[in-house]
Design goal:
- Strands 1, 2, 3, 4, 5, 6, 7 and 8 form an eight-stranded antiparallel β-sheet that branches.
- The radius of gyration is 21 Å and the shape is globular.
- With 299 residues, the protein is an alpha+beta fold.
- Helix content is 32%, strand content 23%.
- It has a single domain, classed as Pnp Oxidase, Chain A (Roll).
Length: 299
């Protein structure tokens, strides 16, 4: 099957749209946490820029950063993240955990999507143990979410990411064909699937799409002096010139510093605060074969 909405996605998207339609802000603000180079937690408020390739079915959330920022450098060393959204109108909180990949002038994600049937064969043992007991499975899921990391071992930004993510051009051509979606997994071989993942050109087009969607003032921020550098008189003058749009001698457009951060989610914790005193909580986990499992747990 082609990529489809994760179990958490409809609830999250609906909450986000409700907040944008009825709230005072035109943006979705969230808290993004990662670990810095000194192994300290680092949290920032960020602006969500939607879904990767402007497609909800990718289930990949994106936001932006400056290539010169400490956040970018920290994520190069450790791409694991935790992100928290709170929607006031519906009183819902979503926590996302997974790993990021970034799109910059010299870095693009490497997707290693495998044949779903092959993944199913490799994960039979795990599937059997997962379904042995609903209580045991729920407890295992809670333990995974509360643990320091969902993935054991190394986690490098350049490692291939096993995720069901197809090339936008492939999806379009496939949808225009007469082949049944349900036959896709059976027809694709592992060798064939490599060409179905996003190309370098499509990654760059996505970076440009997000860039063009930014406001003019936001794009200006990427031309400013090195983030965190001393506010010298020279930097003060440059900031003033950029803000007034009179930095004609500055050859930088800012695009060279522009980075799109893609959040590939593995675990989701949704909490719904009930007005009648009955709160609810759901945990979602992405499995090896890129399906999602949902469990309702005590809030």
């Amino acid at each position: 099957m082609l990529q489809s909405l994760a179990l958490w996605n409809p609830s999250f998207t609906a909450a986000m749209q409700t907040e944008l339609e009825t709230g005072d802000s035109p943006f979705t603000i969230f808290n993004f946490s990662n670990v810095d180079s000194n192994n300290y937690p680092s949290t920032r408020s960020c602006v969500l820029r939607g879904f990767l390739f402007d497609q909800e079915k990718t289930n990949v959330l994106v936001f932006t950063t400056d290539k010169r920022s400490s956040k970018y450098k920290d994520l190069l060393l450790n791409p694991r993240f935790d992100a928290c959204f709170y929607f006031h109108k519906l009183k819902k909180q979503f926590r996302f955990r997974g790993t990021v990949r970034m799109i910059s002038d010299d870095l693009t994600p490497v997707i290693a999507y495998e044949n779903p049937s092959a993944i199913n064969e490799q994960s039979n043992d795990r599937a059997d143990s997962d379904t042995s007991s609903v209580d045991d499975e729920s407890q295992s899921l809670i333990s995974q979410y509360l643990s320091l990391s969902n993935n054991e071992g190394s986690c490098q930004i350049t490692e291939p990411l096993h995720y069901k993510l197809f090339s936008p051009s492939f999806i379009k051509s496939f949808e225009d064909s007469s082949v049944s979606l349900s036959d896709l997994g059976h027809r694709m071989t592992k060798t064939e699937s490599v060409s179905k993942t996003p190309t370098a050109e499509e990654w760059e087009n996505e970076r440009l799409r997000v860039w063009n969607a930014l406001s003019r003032n936001m794009r200006k921020s990427y031309k400013k002096p090195l983030p965190g550098s001393p506010l010298t008189e020279e930097n003060r003058k440059l900031l003033d010139a950029i803000n007034r749009g009179v930095d004609g001698n500055n050859s930088s457009t800012g695009y060279e510093n522009f980075v799109v951060i893609c959040m590939f989610v593995d675990l989701v914790d949704e909490v719904v605060l009930g007005g009648s005193g009955y709160d609810r909580r759901y945990l979602y986990r992405r499995t090896h074969n890129d399906t999602w499992k949902e469990h309702e747990v005590c809030p």
